[in-house]
Each structure stands twice: as structure tokens, then as C-alpha cells.
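User: Here's a chain of 595 residues. Predict its fold as C-alpha cells.
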Amino acid sequence: MLSLEETIEQILKHLPQYDREAILVMIREKREELGADVINEESAAMIVARELGVDLSQESSGARFRIDDITEGTRSVTLTAKVVEVGTVRTFTRKDGTEGKVASVIIADDTGRIRVALWDDMTQAISDGHVTLGSFVQVRGAYVKKGFRDALELNLGRMGGIRVLEDYEADDVDFDVTEADIAGVGGLQDGMFDVTVLVKVVRAFRLSTFTRKKDGNEGKVLSIIGADESGSIRVVFWDNLAEEMDGVQPGEVIRVTQAYTRTSQSGLEVHSSRSSAIERDIKGKLKDVEGTEVTSSFAETLGRKTIAELTPDMKDVDVEGKVTRLFPANEWEKEDRKGRVQNIFIHDESGGELRITFWNDDVDKIADLQVGDVIRIKHGYVREREGRIEYQVGRRSEIEINPENTELADLEITDAGQQTLIAAERMIIRNIDESSEGRSVEISGLIVGVSNVSPIYPACPECGKKLTEKGSDYFCQKCDSEMKPEHRVAFKITLDDGTGSPDDDSTGSIKVMLFGRVGEKILGVTAQEAHELIEKSGVETEPIDVSKDMIIGKHVTVQGRVSKYREEIEITASRLVETDLKQAAKLTREDLDKH
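Assistant: Prediction complete.
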């Protein structure tokens, strides 16, 4: 049996002299004539068609609208399909302050699959349980637009509708739903969407919570390392799906649909989307993935390394050592977000000393830590700071204090500390000159200028060096190969502490180069977000332009190394924090008194 909209389409196809409204009037009049409680709209439409001389029995199933017929220019889509995924109803606030609702379903027929977004009152079909997984539905009056990563999707507004077919109507459906193609891990590339993967869990990380920069709301994230016969990769789940994956165990086989791929600083990853669905504990598949070649650097487990073996940009690496120094925890605050950070130093059998940084909840886990304790940390990462390496404890890290099977309990630490970081020397800006080159200094002042250039650059993901453009590709001179760029932050601010004097032509300002997280912190966005702003606006300075008013006038304290660039003395920052003006003024007076 044809749906109401399909019947109307066939009438208009054969009798173009009529318009849709005229056909609807005829259908309403036919129901009133025969009794609205006796005949439904679909049957009344078929009678009207027959009376107008349109033979619906001659219409083949192939004449009906299919998903692969949909293009960006398609108008008022009406089709019949099966619901293969159902999302949750979300509320949001519009620009005018009113509340809206949105939900989505994935529908499929024998030609493909497509996302259908339901807005406002239309979401009632999901929240009331009318539209469920496996339902055959008629979507009518939908409009086409580009959604995530420019994929076509259908949207249902006030003029559209979705109706679950009656059993007798569903029996007449003459197509088999296509199954989503499962992508092999080894064939995944950056920028793919509508991805379905079937993987065995090799490792599961704990569920973590965080505060979103955009709205201050709490978010949740959980990741696994999953593998199939072609490779292994990190799969990241967000919010409700992270909760759904909580408790997942190695060896479990899962299927994730409607996911997408992206490249982070640590390699290619699969991420769940709002439309994603998860099937857990699938039996009888992927029983043997041992020996799988690792296809993502994020999936590679380096295991335990000694301090002497650590190199910058190592990911997912374990360390173990005896605590040589403990620093008190500090609180940080930025706009409506706040947190804590604490540093310690450890010493191991290789003779080196390593700085380790803990953040937020992990600070509580080392509250009782003492000098001389042995600490073992798994799944952290290494970065370079002021020419020396340091170890970061991330959300996925595991911490163990005085493990029973440690071999470092008897390690002597009396000679530890020979490789500690040089303390930054407090200075006023007017005293920084060529003789200060190479020194680690600390200065405070107002930000009075920001460089008017692009704040990001394409970096090699292997060595971190800036890539050169080679046509439409990027080339790394150091690695001597083409590379997919990893965007990183680098820009300059001008700092002034008010110590300049016209009497001796001294200046109280200096340029400060900000790299990486230090730059992201003052810019207010990540390197990737800055790149997306530039791509969207077409303006290379867009991230600076939108943030400049918030940056200029901030009073900050900077620690870094003095260097010379094109005959001009500047500072390359390793640390930057916003400072209290009263305290800063006091420190500046003390600095002036000393000099």
C-alpha cells in the first residue's frame, strides 16, 4: 500500500494541472463523505486517485523515492524506510533565549542510510516511544541540508512529519535494509564520517569527567584501544555513550556506528558522535586479533621506560621512580573554570631526575605522598619544556604508590637532583638585555600588544618542526618526507611592566613568544579550534581578532628563557599565569628597590 504522500505524488505526476492543496481538499471531502471513522487518509487518497483516473496498481516499487535519490537540491522529501538507530532528545537554548529540542534517527532502505533530524514538537515521536528501533516509518515533507562534515541529512520542521506504518502497511514494504559497511581499522583515514567499526577491546581506560570550555557544563569521556584483523586504534566515547561503555573489559567485542575519525596530537582516533550507537559483548567474532599491526600511534603502548630513555612527544608511556622533591598543590582559575596542579620530581635507576605534573582529581591521589616513596604511573605522556623533558599525568593515567612488586625500594636518592631545572630569576624588563641571553627569568606586566599574524603553523607530527608547503601537500625537511600537518600555536605578545625611563632611553616592554599550551591558554582556544576558525572565516588572524580585546590589558607573570631573534631581545615563555594587580605592583616595587 502506498503512503499518503506517495499517492499524492503519483496524482500530481499524472495530473500536473492540480496542486497539492487541491488534492488534500479532495481527500478530506472523500473522508467526510465516507466517514472519517471508517476510512483513513491513505485509503481516501487511493479512492481519489482512482476517481481521477490514476492507476496506482501500475506504479512499480522502483518508482518510489529511495535514499540514494536524495541530493542537496531535493525538495520536500517523502519516503518509506526502516529505523536502524534512535538518538536521545536534547534541549538547547536559541540565540533569542527560547528553548528548543532536537533528536535524530537513522533510517535505511535498500539503497542506503541517512540521518533524520527532528526539531521541537517533532521530537515527541521519540520521547513518547512511537518511533523505535526497527520501526518502518514514512517521512514526509522533509528538507535536505548538509550536516556534520557536509553529509546530507533530512530535517523535519513544522511542515514535515514522521509516521510509523501500520502492520499491514509494513507487510507491503518491498525492500531489504542495507547493513552498514564495517570499516577495517587498517583502512581508516582522517576526516571520515558515518563510520562503523567492529573491534575487540584490547585495553579500557577509566571514565573521566571534565568541564566544557564553551558552556561550563560537565562532560564525560571514556576511551578504549580496539583492534581487528587489520590494526588497532583508540576509540573515544563521549557523555551518555561514555557512561554506556563504563565497565567495559578487555576481550569484549563491540560495534560502534555513526562514528567519525579525527587526528589528535597522538594519532588517528575514532570518535562517537551524537548519532552513534553501541552494541556490546558481540559473540563469535574477532576471537583472534593477536599480532595485529598497530596503525595508530595513539594505540601504541610503550610500556615502562627509564628516565634516560624518555624522549619528547612519547605517548602512552609508563614511568616509575622514587620521589626526590614534592611541591605544594596550586590552584588555577580562568574565567568560570578552575582547577589544581601539583609537581613532583622522581629519580630512577638510570640516574636521571624527572619532573611530573598532576592535574585536578589526580592531585588528591598523591595527597599522602612523601619524599622517598616509590610511585608508578602508567599511560602518561612526555613533553619538552625549556629544553628539558617532563612527564604529564593525563586523564587516562593510572597511579600506584609503593607497589609491592617494585624493584626501586632500596634505590639511593642522596645524589639525586643533579639534573634539576634551573630556577627562574626574577627581573624587571628594563634590565633585560643581550647579557641576559640564555638566562631563565620571571617577569610580570600588562599585555599591551598581540602580533597581528596567524597564531598557528603546520607542524610535523613526528619531529614537531614547521612544515613547508609543497603544492597542496606539506613537506618536512628534517624527516625528508611529506606529512599531514598537526596544527600548533605560536604567536607573540608584548609585555610592559612600567619600568621604562626616558632619562636613560630604557624600555619597560619586551616581546614574549608563546608556544603550545602556553599560547592556547592566553588565546582561549586550542590550536585545532584556531585552525577551524581560520578555515571558516578565511582570515588568518581570526583567532587573534576575536580574542584581542580579552588579551590586551591582562596582567600576567611569565617564566621563560631570554633569546635573541633578528637582533631583538625577547623571551620564549615556558609558563604564564594571570596575576593579581596588587600583588604584582608590590613585587615590581620590590624589584625596583633591588635595582
